[in-house]
Structures are given as structure tokens and as C-alpha cells.
Amino acid sequence: MKDHQRYIRIDQGYIMAALFDIRSPEENPVQIISLIGIILLLVFYSDISTPLGLMTWILYFIPLVMTLYLRWQYSPFVVTGISILFIIVSFFFSPRDMSEFYALVNRSFFCLLLIVLASLIWSNKRRVSFLQISKDKFQAIVESSPLSIIIITGEDVRYINPAGLDLITGDSQPGSVDFWIHLFSPDNYEMIRSGIMKAREGAMIELSDLKFGIRESKNQIADLWIKEVVWDKTSAIQLIIRIQT
Predict the structure, then answer these.
(1) Where are the domains of the chain?
(2) Is residue 217 left, alpha or beta, with left meaning phi > 0 and alpha meaning psi from -120 to 50?
(3) For residue range 206-218, what is the model confidence (pLDDT) as tens digits?
(4) Which of 153, 159, 181, 204 is 20 to 30 A from 17 (CA-CA)?
(5) For residues 86 and 15, what is the distance between their CA atoms, to the nearest angstrom?
(6) Whole-number Cα distances in Å, 103 to 46, 94, 97, 114, 183
(7) Which residues span the membrane (predicted)?
């Protein structure tokens, strides 16, 4: 199972899942922090060494954007604070080639932009953090659910939760939709295939009191829910099997 988000809702015996790609970039915190520090110092040195009217300070956007690669939520505000401090210091030491008033206005406006961008990055980090927590919680729900959950794309099975694996025995290879269909009674084959086709058109299919476990010689009675979901940005079919007790 790839690193994607699963929002899962349990309602009247079925689970509806939607996946969102929120991959966090690969990060090496020490290298990134070091690089941010080096860029901040280089921009500061460049700004303090060039005329007041040369907008070298606009390069402070670079280290701020790089905080996207750090998991610490408040890193954008730290980098913004350092950048603003450097901008203020360089204002007093840069060679004069223009009106100090206009230079101050330009730098003040840029500092405001830095704060706005830092707030947007911080908001995005909070969203990603929340989604990661939600993923862990709902993944735990799926893994511990007594309902068997199978995700199918095309004719191939992409995911089976532990309860689903408990439905099969021996060295069975539940890698295709046919395997799961043939666990039911032959009388139900066409009904289930028809349900899968309708689910691909957007319908939510519920089938009750089906004979299940024929291949495994269990002869159980099951309810089946079939629903179209999104898996890895691709349309997929979700089968929910509940064994009646």
C-alpha cells in the first residue's frame, strides 16, 4: 500500500474510501537547514554590499520556500524573522543611491509579502500534518475492521485488509477479482459481476444473504457492498464483505 491518504467512513455496514496524494518531499533536515542558513547569509552579504536601490533582498524568498521541505511547522516564521532582521540591518549599511524613504517603503512591502507567504506555508504544513494523523487513525480502523475490505483496479486486487485475508485458507492467491467472485455461490456470479459494472458507473451496490466460502468449504452467509473509489489516482472498485453470524 503506497503512502497516500485514505478517508474512511463507516456507515450502515459499508466503508467509502477516497485517496489523496499528499506525499511529503524527501528531506534531510540537517542539509536543508544548513542550505537555508548559507543562502540567508549570502543574500545578506550581497544586500549589504550593493546599493540601496538594488533589490537583492528579494532573494530571501528562496530560503523561505525551502521551509516546505522541513516538517517543523514554525520554520517559515523563523526564516521570515531572520530575513526581516537582515533586511533592517542591511538598510542602514547598504551604499545610498536612492531616497531612503522609497527604499524603506519597498523593503517594508517586501517584509509584508514574506509574512503572508510564511503564513501560507505554515497553513499548508498544518493541513499536511492533520492529513497524516488522519491517515494513521483511519488506516488503523481499516486494519482492525471486522469487515473484509478488498480494493480492485481492473481485474487485479490491489489491497486486502487482515479480515479479508482471514476469509481464505491455505496457499490461495487472491490476486484477481475472479478469485473473490468464485468464493460465492455460482448462482451469484452474474449478480456480482453486474454489481461491479454498475459500481463503475457510480452506483452503490448492496447484495444481501449471499452464499459465501464455496471455494474454501465454509458455506457461510455474507452481505456484499460494491462501490467505486479512487486508488492511486485511478478508478477502482471496493468490495466490502460482512459474514453474517
Answers:
(1) 29-141, 145-243
(2) left
(3) 999 999 986 666 7
(4) 181
(5) 53
(6) 16, 11, 10, 17, 76
(7) 77-95, 101-122
